[in-house]
Amino acid sequence: MVYEGSKLSVTLADGIADLRFDAADESVNKFDAATVRELGEAAAALKQADGLQGVVVTSGKPVFIVGADITEFGEMFKQPDDEFLAGMKASNDVFNAIEDLGVPTVTAINGLALGGGFEMCLATDYRVMAQSAQIGFPEVKLGIIPGFGGTVRFPRLVGADNAVEWICTGSQNRADAALKLGAVDAVVADDQVEAAARDLLAKAIAGDFDWQARNAQKKAALGLNQVEAMMSFETAKGYVAQQSKGQYPAPVEAVKRIQAAAGMTRDDALAEEGKGFLAVARTPEADALIGLFLNDQLIKRKNKGHGKIARDVNQAAVLGAGIMGGGIAYQSALKGVPITMKDIAENALQQGLDEAAKHFDKRVSRGKMDTAKMAAGMGRIRPTLSYAEFGNVDVVIEAVTENPKIKKSVLAETEEAVGENAVIASNTSSISIDDLAAGLKRPANFLGMHFFNPVHAMPLVEVVKGDKSSDEAVATVVAYAAKLGKTPIVVNNCPGFLVNRILFPYFFGFQALVSGGVDFARIDKVMETFGWPMGPAYLSDVVGMDTSQHVEEVLAAGYPDRMKAQSQSSLDVMVEAGRYGQKTGSGYYKYEQDKKGKPKKTVDEAAYELVAKVQPDGSREAGDDEIVERMMIPMIIEAARCLEEGIVATPNELDMGLVLGVGFPPFRGGALKYADRLGLAHVVERADAHAELGKLYEPTARMREMAANGEQYYS
Known about the structure:
Blueprint: E1 3-4, E2 8-13, E3 16-21, H1 33-48, E4 54-59, H2 73-77, H3 81-99, E5 105-109, E6 112-114, H4 116-123, E7 126-130, E8 134-136, H5 150-158, H6 160-169, E9 172-174, H7 175-181, E10 186-188, H8 193-206, H9 211-219, H10 226-244, H11 249-260, H12 266-281, H13 284-306, E11 316-319, H14 323-334, E12 339-342, H15 346-365, H16 371-379, E13 381-384, E14 395-398, H17 404-417, E15 423-426, H18 433-437, E16 446-451, E17 460-465, H19 471-483, E18 487-492, H20 499-515, H21 520-530, H22 536-543, H23 545-558, H24 560-563, H25 570-576, E19 590-593, E20 599-602, H26 605-611, H27 624-644, H28 651-662, H29 671-678, H30 680-689, H31 701-709
Parallel strand pairs: 3-4, 4-5, 5-7, 6-8, 7-10, 11-12, 11-14, 12-13, 14-15, 15-16, 17-18
Antiparallel strand pairs: 1-2, 2-3, 8-9, 16-17, 19-20
Pfam family, one: 3HCDH
Pathway: Lipid metabolism; fatty acid beta-oxidation
Family: In the central section; belongs to the 3-hydroxyacyl-CoA dehydrogenase family. Belongs to the enoyl-CoA hydratase/isomerase family.
């Protein structure tokens, strides 16, 4: 044994060292401070090892290395600049020590090698990749850039343009793409990856491959002349800035640092990378995006806890076979859980099957699935007009019309048809779970399971716990949602639940602006610049005016002090005119199909004529700051109310719900993270400045207390 630590070890036999990452008591390998330290110690031990001819780097886990330990970022990012950069250099000295061993080195990549994990692979001379493995640089998705030499070694290995694409998109890349690019040297079957790496190493030792030239290539300047560099990097910066809309600084910073270091050799280039890392590490965007990652980890830990008491779901059922029911059936079948799809009409069943088939077909056309797997998936969906096969169902999802009377009738029928232990969940978007449970014999087995539309694309599921819902029923639905590949968040029952309750004050702010004479298209533009994927008018069209009006009515009944409209809104006149949005071809905008068959919005003067009915004082201009404040402050305040009332357990889950459920700008981190960024004192001050707009702009007593004490939602 050359070296043995808790994170990795090195053995030596016949001149070949096996540097093996295998963190004790951990399910995966990651680069925390202890692992970097042990790697440095291992490199020093290898340097002194007698008879060393080559090194193969392997993993004792199902994946290679998933990346850096992000939980350590908080303390690291608080360090003074000089201390921070010194730490970066010390870490890179460790990777350099592996690269400078003076013998050929090969990494056997199994599973995932991401971020620092892939940078470890780049420190060796060659890489052999398992067929199912994936590699890449996800750092920009956390608002940062590679910091262990990724912006230095990778461009020198695959070329600047290719490196910029991989680093700036943050994508995970399959083995075939990696081999084509030259990111790896060989791709083999999963069970052959270590053997193939050893074979390549033997050939390098024998002189069949010029490992020294490869090693030197990664340490040299990039090798672009002045014209080539200007064309490559200036084009890249413009494209990346356009794609990131100026909202994500990390991708642009990555290009700048690759460009600045293009004429430098390794050590100077690494110093340049360190400066770039520091430049983005303390940005609000990095804080928000890293926060979302940690929020996601928290939710996964909580959901894992639910799994301890959840019942197994081996057979599911969905009631209502429309687009929503078909989408749920598709998702369940895709993830391997057989599902019965029931409706009262053959044509509805066919619509549900067509919806599922459409999504399976898209996977086939994109190369994500072959026709045999598609057939197997469709075979897991069993259409039926009766309850005859419901006796063995573990979970039933009711997804019929959003009408309490119809839902109650269907739920009562379903309860009679299923076994005593079956869990029944309503996919309602706003109807009270306690109200729906009132007529059931086993309310402990009933709760809400709110999918967001379209089901296949939206990652969030609200699991709504009623007063009588059992912990076991909640845990079962949480586990089933996770099995479907969704992120379930448990919320307590209230009008609108969590996401819609917080979203609609944002819409109410929009309606008040429009009624005050502000152009809805201008509001859309401002809020899209703020970071929303679509502005409130466009979003209303996509959601559907009738759907929005229904939710508004539920919220008005639940919170009449602040959500009951005092006058007709632009939404009301749209509904009266039969302009429901995309579904009818017109709303705030007019919709026509583009060349790909997707709805394309265009300006419609008829919409302006309708909106003018609710603008008695005519049109007026509003500054960007006023629009953002009047849209976002009601959302922040309602989010605070939900947290204070215990509708959701943590600010982490609340913010993740908004990001995953309605597209809250990720780089702002969610409503409460955004409030922290502004400072609660500022939020309260600006809310008071808009006090004449009503109770939606009235901060809670707890918000005022937090503002006075300088408190934040995230410590």
